[in-house]
Amino acid sequence: MTGHQTARQSLPKPAPRLTDRHPDETDVEVAPRDTLLGRLGHDHLAVAGAVTIVMSVLAALFAAGLSGLSGNDPFRYHLDALDPTGAPAGWGGGIGAAHWFGVEPLTGRDLFSIVVHGSRTSLLVGVGATAVAMLIGVAVGGTAGYFGGWFDAVASRVIDVLFGFPGLIFMIAVGAIAPIWFPRVLMLVLVIGFFGWPSIARVVRGQTLEMRTQGYVRASAAIGAGHAHVLLRQILPGLTATIVVFSTITIPGTIGAEAALSFLGVGVPPPTPSWGRSIGDAVTWFATDPFYLLFPGLALFLVTLAFNVFGDGLRDALDPRSRGLGR
Amino acid sequence: MKAPVRVVEAARAGVAQRLVRSDVLHTVRFVAGRTSGMALVLLIVSALTFAVFVLLPADPAQLACGRPCTPERLEAARGYMGLNQSAAGQYLDFLRGIFVGRTYGAGSAQVDCAAPCLGYSFRLNESVTTLIASRLPVTFSIAIGAAVLWLVGGVAAGVVAAIRRGTVADRMVILGAVTGVSAPSYLVGLLGILLFGFTLDMVPVSGYVSFTESPVDWAWHLVLPWAVLALLSAAVYARLTRALMLDVLGTDYILTARAKGITESRVITHHALRNVMIPVVTLFGLDLGGLLGGAVITEKVFSMAGLGSLLLDAVGNVDLPVVVGVTLFSAALILVANFVVDLVYGLLDPRVRA
User: Fold this and answer.
1) SS3 for chain B, per residue?
2) Tens digits of per-residue pLDDT, B307-335?
3) Is B83 near chain A, with CB under 8 Å?
4) Regarding predicted confidence, which is higher, B201 or A217?
5) pLDDT value at position A129?
6) Within the 286-305 window of chain A, which residues sit less than 8 Å (CB to CB) from chain B?
7) Which of residues 5-64 of B touch A (CB under 8 A)?
8) What is the ipTM of this complex?
């Protein structure tokens, strides 16, 4: 897409060190290519992704203020904005000065407010579940790789089994029988997070296994450091890059899981706005009011795409050997 | 030029013959090991699944007991459903039901649940096994067609992108792949229905016609679900294939193959693709197993009564035996798929068996 990508892709193997520059790249240099941010800044797709992510985070943080700009909130009914059949009155699902994205069929709630507030739900569950997955994954993978032996054997087997588990089926099933007093959002965070940890655990285990034999780790153990110190102070810092990249590429999956569960009606309960649930509600309306599907769908798609593209860019920037798209 | 080739061929044939003989024993041991391993994992997974659902505070007897629910009636319902014992006892009953079947209640109210009994739905008055069997053809039809499409399409796109790296074709594949990975299947499905079903009126948008009734109608009703599922999953396979292909194309043995003067297309298909396919097949097995266990979202979007919709209905009505049965069944399917994949490439790739 960019001149820089083609230049990098045409470099001969083996991949050059980070500081090597292709001769014809120097004239387009704006930021130093040997810093992480510099390399990321040259990846236009990644920058676009980052901008979209920042915008959605801002929307989530200032959701009330944003929807307040047009004098709306996601909960108030506007039955006057509907025609007698319950569909929004006017063109485009009732788009106008009062309702920027139109209104919801049957209730007349402001769709712009619903979409803006929906980013809260999506990001909260997405980031929360990713944090849970990272926590379990790094803890299990790190200790399994570090201690080895039977613990590693058991952990690896568990990872294998969980990898091939019908996660969505299980999440739906658990949703059915979870006690009512348990907060749904927290349950989603825990359940989605629980099915997300095996992949990071596998990678962290591999890296820890490698690091364990390296000089600085052995030296640390040799001068009397305990297992906790070695794991937290010597090995964990070396895993930072992996954790950051994996978090970024896990978030779109967890956001998608929340949306899918809400779409199926077993996720976030009404009236809390959720993109997935709006899309699910739009199913019965989209022949008459496609805009009800369009706005939440577009929001979900754009945020997921942004995280995916940014994650890819981040991985490339951190790993000079990766070529555009890894596994 | 000809003679040495013949000598090499002869030597190779001899080695192959000797390998085949010792391989039979090896293979038997390999298959036996993997089979017992899978049986053990299945047992553990079923116990864990069962534990999760028994420990959670939903009481099927409470739901079935009717109003007013006196303690006596609740106790009677418990006894009838086999819930008046410890969790371990219930699990053992469940396991026994799978192998020899079981009965609920006695006398005129007795209900039989034949051999592979995965429980009994007192709401639908049907054994879970029968329910699953009646829904499986739908899910199966969706999964198989989509899987074939996405495997072929995804791998082909990935290979083209890798060979034509840096060209417009490559960028199209990369962009298409990241878009496909980001788009939720229900969104694409709904757009497909809107465009091809409502606007262009080309294909049916819902319902299922069984294959035995009319193969043409069967395929015609499945075109859209297949396309939607395949489009999105192909994205993952294209990414994976492209990355693996680029890795493999840089290796020495490919260089050797090219240096020997083998045509490029043969190098790609016979040398590179063989190695690329191993991880791809692994992923394929897992995905297919997962899909067979319930294409929940696709079934909902296209209003097809498959396993996924059975589960969703059961969840909506707190029909616990069905929830447990379907969950276990789909977990088992994935494990079996995983096992078959293991077996297949254990047989294809001798290194795995060591």
Assistant:
1) CHHHHHHHHHHHHHHHHHHHHHHHHHHHHHHHHHHHHHHHHHHHHHHHHHHHHHHCCCCHHHHHCCCCCCHHHHHHHHHHHCCCCCHHHHHHHHHHHHHHCEEECCHHHCEEECCCCCCEECCCCEEHHHHHHHHHHHHHHHHHHHHHHHHHHHHHHHHHHHHCCCCHHHHHHHHHHHHHHHCCHHHHHHHHHHHHHHHCCCCCCCCCCCCCCCHHHHHHHHHHHHHHHHHHHHHHHHHHHHHHHHHHHCCHHHHHHHHCCCCHHHHHHHHHHHHHHHHHHHHHHHHHHHHHCCCHHHHHHCCCCCHHHHHHHHHHCCCHHHHHHHHHHHHHHHHHHHHHHHHHHHHHCHHHHC
2) 888 888 888 777 888 888 888 888 888 77
3) no
4) A217
5) 93
6) 286-287, 290, 293, 297, 300-301, 304-305
7) 41, 44-45, 49, 52-53, 56-58
8) 0.74
